[in-house]
Amino acid sequence: MYELSSGSSHGPYFIDLFAGAGGMSEGFVRAGFLPIAHVEMDVAACYTLRTREAFHRLSQKGDLRIYSRYAEGQETRTKLYEAAFGKNAPNVVNAVICRENLQKIFDHVDFLSHGRKPDVLIGGPPCQAYSLVGRARSELGMIGDYRNYLFVYYVEFLKRYRPKYFVFENVVGLLSAREKDGSRYLDMMMALFEEVGYSVEWQVLSSDDFGVPQKRKRIILVGREGRKASFFPEISKRDEGFCVNDVIGDLPSLSAGDGTPFSVHLSLEPSDWLKQSGILSDDRSVTWHDARPHNDRDLQIFKEVVHRWESQRERLNYNDLPEKLKTHKNRKSFLDRFKVVASNLRASHTIVAHIAKDGNYYIHPDSNQNRSLTPREAARIQTFPDNYYFEGASEKPSRTSAFKQIGNAVPVLLAQQVAESLLENWS
Question: Which residue in 46, 98, 127, 243 is the catalytic one?
C-alpha cells in the first residue's frame, strides 16, 4: 500500500521526524500507513529515503526494471528519480529541525500533504544526548547539549498538525538522563505532551522479544489526543526458534576487502525465518554485501575471538591477547572491544552506529571468512528488506554512510509490529 499521486485519498497517514534511513517509516508502510513527509538533517539518509520511496512508487507501477539497473550500478540516481517521481516531489524534507527552520519545514510538509492530515507522528530525536555511552564520552555529561531539547520541536509538530497518535522512540538511557538541576528529561517531555493535549503511555521493548534477531532495548512512548487510559498497543511476544545463522547464513562467503555495494544474486536456500520475515527480495538479490578490509593484526585477533567462542563459548577479554596484538592503552574498560556475532545465538548484540568506524565489535562468526560484518549482514539483523538501498551523500557508494544509517535505525520488524498493533487498537 503506497500512494502514488497527489490525488490519492487513502490512509492512515504519518509524518516521520528525525527519520534517519527510514527503519521506523518502513515498518509503518509495511503495516499499511502512508507517509506524508520524512524530515531528516543528514544528506545521505535523505537520499536513502528518496531511493526507498522511488522503489515503492515503481513497485506500485509494476515495473522495477530501472530500480534493478540502478542497484546493479548501471543507471544514475537522476534517471531513477525521474522515472519514479516525474513532476512530483519526493516526500523528503532535508532540514535541521530547529527554531529557525520550523516555519520552512511546516511549509514544505504542507506542500507535500496536499491538504491531507496526518493521523500519526512518528520518530525520535538523535539518541546521543540520552544514551549512557554518549553521556560517558561527553566532558559535561551532555548537560546543556541542544539535542536534549529537540522534543520541544516534536511538540510544535503536534500543535500544528494535531495527529490522533504519536509514537516517540529513543534509547533506554532516557529513563535516567537529567538536566543540571536534576530534572529528568522524560518527565519534562511527558508534562509538555500532556500540556498540549496528549495522554502518554510508555514501555521499554526489547526487539529480540518480538522476532527481531537482535538484543536492542528501546523506550517507546505512545501519545493519544485527548484523555484516555490504556491505549498502548498490545504487542505479543514471539519466539520463532531461529538463530543468527538463519538470518545471514545464505549470503555469499567473502574475505576481508571483498564484495560490492551493488546487486549480487543469492544461490543458497534461505532459512524458513527469512522466507517468513518479508526480508527477501523477489529476485533474490542483495546490495551492500561489501566487506571492509582489515590489517593483519586485527585478522589475527578475529581468529582468536571466533575460536574462543566456538571452543569455549567465551567472549574474548582484551587483556588475554598476546602483548604483540595489543595496541589500546585502555586496559580497564571496553575489554570486550572485539566481539563475534555468534551464529548459534537467538539474537545478536545491538548494532550501533559505531560500526561505521570499525567492525571489531561485529566479527563474522565464520572463521574461514575472517572479517567483520558487511552492511547487508548488519541490515539483515536490523530486519531491513534486501531491496533496501543505502545511499551516500554523492552518487558514489559510501560503505561508512551505509553502516552509520543502519546502526542508527529502528529495526523494521519491531516498527511494523508497533504500527500493526496501533491499527488493531485504533479508537
Answer: 127
